[in-house]
Structure formats: C-alpha cells, structure tokens
Write a structure and sequence with these properties.
- By secondary structure, this protein is mainly β.
- It has no helices and 11 strands.
- The strands form 3 sheets. A 6-stranded antiparallel sheet has the order 6-3-2-1-7-8, with no helix packed on it. Strands 9-10-11 form a 3-stranded antiparallel sheet, with no helix packed on it.
- It is extended and about 55 Å long.
- The termini are far apart.
- The relative contact order is 0.18.
C-alpha cells in the first residue's frame, strides 16, 4: 500500500553557489585531497552534487567481469564520483583562496560576487539562480 505521507519535491532550479567550469577547493574528505583545487566538469543541481577533475578528484572503483561477446575486458575501473557541493568552495581569482559568494542583480543578469575581495564572476545564464 502506498504511503500517505507526501515527500516534498525539490524545485527544478535548485540553488548552487558553483557552476560548471568553476575552479573550486575541496574542504573535506581524505587528507590526501583536502585543500586541493580542481575544476567542475559536471553539475547535478537537484542532487546538490558535482563531479570535479584535477588534484581534488574523488574516484570510485568498480569491479567488472570480462564479457568477450560484448568486447568488455575484466578488471577494476576507476571513475570520477560526485562530491556534495557543500564540501566545495569557489576559488577567488584575485587572492587564490576559497571564498563565499553573494548574488547581485545587474543589467547583465545575476552576478556572483566574492564576499571579501569583491571580485565579480561571470553573469548568470540560468533562470532562478538569484539568491
């Protein structure tokens, strides 16, 4: 029987302080990668996760059985795994340090601005990303 409790639905335009192509610092995780930088290559806003490549890349290992008919060779495959966006901080290009951002509206759209240095990041093209 179906549950009578309704789960709240997330909006289609979930808010994210980072975007694809941003340079970020990993705040938490294994000591080997904590504090290292990387670039976001894919963003999943509804899941609040991002795939990051670079020094701070997180990997998962998948064991694959060989399948000669499909031409698949067996072994262990390493692939990038998503990281929660709360564990990522945007890098301020003026100071090269992690920063928090605020959102400002301008003629060009919504612009992210670094809290400490005031650096203005590129204008937003996504609707509803104003904070």
């Amino acid at each position: 029987m179906a549950s009578k409790v309704k789960k709240p639905k997330l909006p289609n335009h979930a808010k994210c302080h980072v975007r694809t192509g941003d340079k970020v610092v990993l705040l938490t995780g294994p000591k080997a990668v904590r504090g290292k930088t990387g670039t976001i290559i894919k963003l999943f806003p509804r899941a609040q996760r991002a795939i990051v490549e670079g020094e701070c890349a997180q990997y998962e290992t998948k064991h694959v059985k060989p399948n000669p008919q499909a031409g698949v060779e067996g072994g262990r495959i390493r692939r990038l795994r998503p990281v929660h966006i709360s564990n990522l901080a945007l890098v301020d290009p003026t100071t090269n340090k992690p920063t928090r951002v605020r959102h400002e509206r301008s003629e060009a759209g919504v612009v992210r601005v670094a809290k400490k240095s005031g650096h203005r990041f590129a204008a937003s093209s996504a609707p509803g990303s104003a904070g």
